[in-house]
Amino acid sequence: MRLLWLTAFALVAVLTLLVVCGNDGAARSAAGPGTQPRKTREAQETPEQAASQPPDDVAPSPSAPPTAESGPGSFVTATASGEAVGTGTIRRYKVEVEVGTGVSVNSAAAEIHGILGDRRGWTANGRDGFRLVASGPYDFEVKSATPDTVDRICGAAGPHTRGEVNCDVGDQVIVNLKCWNTGSPQFSGPLHEYRALIINHEVGHRIGHGHETCPGPGLPAPAMMQQIDGLRGCRANTWPYDSHGKYLGGPRVA
Q: Does residue 218 form part of some domain?
């Protein structure tokens, strides 16, 4: 785990917490979305081999493993990689899962690849693209961990995730496996849709989007809205764009 940046970074940490399995306990890097790619670390454990290009959409396992409260704090990196999705600024990312959690790192990587490549996702803006990598330089990590490990990583930069929420610190999107495996009691949609909301919300912060709120009664809630904190009359929604390329946004939250 890279900790060299944490002391300075804690001075500019911004914390926003939600209730059970919500987005997000966030501490954003002052460097912002234009930071240079960092060099990847080698995997600490070799996962099963996967196709070199994950499919565009992968359904989650019908029976997710139970989530332990704690783990060893070490991670395995997905060996899967994919072609870039979207155009404009292509951000390279890798996927890691905490060792011993029973979650397939390559399956998680394939699902995230499908979410980021969905036509309703951030690539619809024509300015942002993503590429899943297994090695080499990267711009950010999507790292899934047990609640205690999430608390430890996020808490080192400021956010107090209390074993319940995700966070965004430095160049890492930290996903709480309790949320990934079981969803949220406040979100009634399919588990894959909730996973997509986690990724779209946190990666939205990565590319420079702040929080938004409900644009009007009965309208889709923005992906950048903290939906678990209440919909304020909007309908629950996972995606930043609709299938026709219209941005499903709302007023910015100061």
A: no
Residue whose token pair is 């979650």: 103
- Give Cα separations from 179 to 117, 210, 246 (angstroms): 21, 22, 28
DSSP letter at 195?
H
Predicted local distance difference test score (pLDDT) of residue 131:
98
> Whole-model pTM?
0.77
Distance CA 105, CA 22 (A): 22
Closest CA to 228 of 154, 168, 165, 175: 165
Is residue 70 within 8 A of residue 91, CB to CB? The reply is no
> Is 236 part of any domain?
no
Q: Give whichever of 148-162, 216-230, 237-251 has the largest mean pLDDT.
A: 237-251
Residue 49 lies in a domain: yes
Determine, yes or no, domain membership for 51. yes
| % pLDDT > 70, the chain | 69
- Tell me 188's DSSP state: -
Q: What pairs with residue 173 in β-bridges?
A: 142, 168
How many Å apart are CA 187 and CA 229, to the nearest integer? 11
The pLDDT of 27-41, averaged and rounded, is 42
Task: Work out the angle at residue 93's Cα, subtended by the Cα atoms of residues 186 and 184, and round it to the nearest 5 degrees.
Answer: 10
Residues of the domain holding 158: 6-209
CA distance linking residue 220 with residue 212, whole number of Å: 12
Q: Cα(172)–Cα(168) distance, rounded to whole angstroms? A: 6
Q: State how many domains the chain has.
A: 1
For position 137, what pLDDT does the model report? 96
